[in-house]
Design brief:
This protein is an alpha/beta fold. The chain is built from ten helices and nine strands. Helices cover 44% and strands 18% of the residues. Helix 1 packs across helix 2 and helix 3 runs parallel beside helix 4.
């Protein structure tokens, strides 16, 4: 039944994506059904996308179409994890203690919540389906043993790294530089895998990898304004790029760090037609 549930949810989401105004889905409308609790983990605060409208839309299609999850009705139990491990585990134990227990968990958005929950759910054989988790640890060699009931519907770093490699290879670039955030494993580990694949799989030379972290940045004097701080605090990193004449730069950092890195690059004249910066696609335009 759990596998049926997951397939039904994915089918419903796909149906929503392909639905056009005035177009009718092929199955008849239905009402009622045996209620099945579905745990939904979200983060309801600024800076995090609100997934609830999309989930409600998908469930609406599930509930009103007789060919999807026939005879059952999913009932959402929404829990806000605040992107904190403690809140996430409390939400999990609240759901486990409830009767009936949820047939599956949908979410969440933060690795620090997903990891302990995914490790715990195997003891109750409850499936967790994440719509936002991309961390490399969920695709490691021992991930199936650690998280046997965890699944995700977004591409992980292995997929995005291959896309970056193919992108570089498509334009015939044979020499690149990289920037990685070495105080965050979710960026540093996939970045190391990326540089290895570029060098050994595509014959691309990594001229230099600059490591950045917030501890290093915070040592700059508070009296400097942000633009000058931005230039001064990363100047030693970009000097090596300029010295090696690197023009193609792949960046694996969080959004705030990306702004700092690009600011420093701008003040070093590393922009324009002669430079290419490749950043994670989920960064906003602000």
């Amino acid at each position: 039944m759990i596998i049926h549930l997951l397939i039904s949810l994915l089918f419903a989401v796909r149906a929503v994506e392909n639905y056009e105004a005035g177009e009718e889905l092929s199955c008849k409308r239905r009402h009622g059904g045996i209620p099945l609790p579905l745990g939904v983990f979200t983060v309801q605060k600024e800076g995090f996308p609100d997934a609830l409208p999309a989930i409600r839309t998908a469930l609406s299609h599930v509930h009103t179409r007789s060919c999807i999850l026939q005879g059952y009705r999913l009932e959402m139990i929404v829990k806000d994890t605040h992107c904190k491990t403690s809140q996430g585990m409390k939400a999990l134990f609240d759901l486990i203690a409830s009767r009936p227990r949820p047939v599956a968990i949908l979410g969440g958005q933060c690795t620090e919540v997903n990891e302990p929950i995914a490790m715990a759910l195997k003891y109750w054989q409850i499936v967790q389906l994440s719509y936002a988790e991309t961390h490399a640890k969920f695709a490691s060699s021992d991930s199936h043993e650690l998280f046997p009931t965890f699944f995700r519907v977004v591409p992980g770093s292995r997929n995005t790294n291959m896309a970056k490699c193919k992108f570089v290879n498509h334009f015939g670039w044979k020499r690149v530089g990289t920037v990685k955030q070495n105080d965050q494993p979710r960026y540093a580990l996939p970045h190391e895998a990326l540089t290895t694949r570029l060098e050994h799989g595509f014959g691309v030379k990594i001229a230099h990898t600059a490591g950045v972290n917030w501890e290093q940045i915070e040592t700059v004097g508070a009296e400097l304004d942000e633009l000058k701080v931005c230039d001064r605090r990363l100047i030693h990193l970009f000097f090596r790029f300029c010295e090696r004449d690197v023009r193609i730069i792949l960046v694996d950092v969080d959004e705030e760090m990306a702004a700092t890195v690009l600011c420093a690059g701008y003040h070093r004249g590393m922009y324009g037609d002669n430079y290419v910066w490749i950043l994670p696609g989920y960064h906003s335009d602000k």
